[in-house]
Design a protein that fits this description.
About 75% of the residues lie in helices and about 5% in strands. It is mainly α. It contains four helices and four strands. The chain folds into two domains: about 30-175, Helix Hairpins (Orthogonal Bundle), CATH 1.10.287.1490; about 175-240, no CATH class. Strands 2-1-4-3 form a four-stranded mixed beta sheet.
Length: about 240
Amino acid sequence: MNDFPAKSDIEILVKLQEAETQIVRLKAVLIKVEKEKEKLRATLNQFEYGVEENKEKLLRTMAACRDTEREIQVIDDRIIKSNEKLRMVKTNKEYNLFLREVDDNKKRKDVLETELLELLDENESMEKFSLESEKEFQLLKDKIEAEQKEIEKKTLDDRELLDEYLANQRKIGKTITTSVMNKFVKISKMNNGSAVVGVENEVCLGCFMNIPPQLYIEVQRGHSLISCPQCSRILYHINT
């Protein structure tokens, strides 16, 4: 319990804890910021996926229009050839055969033309929708990029401050022994960045549990590093 008899260590550890507290706070702020930025990126990516999907649908519709137009052209050629053959037939049987062929091709052409009109209407709607989606996406992209820049601007001071505290923590850490520093780091990890806390009226301000009177006296003396029996935090006396 009485680990490292160095009164100056306690003062140093208190300063180290002040830096650690700010580091933990700032890291939490920056993690929250990154989550906000990631949420914005996810929103933008989802919208972009929808825009690309609309483009692909439009391309498929346009391809279907071209395929239908080509098939209509093929049938027109067949009708022309069948009509030419009609003028050259010599028997009723041949005439009826080519006449039925012309009729079948005309029916197929009528069906395809109806399909083409529907495809063209769909293509027009898809094209309009796709253009509107792209405009909306660009507006959303500009908005999100502006929000991200604003977030970065707001957190710039926090990042700089974090660097300062980290540098200060390293500087302070060099003034104590490796064993004391290791003890601090270990306890800090156990208690979410809280390794050193004050004691007031025999109460640990880390876990708010009472400590034994004799232990409290030793904390007041400050001749050694005393750990809380409940939470293991290093204790120091708060002068009131």
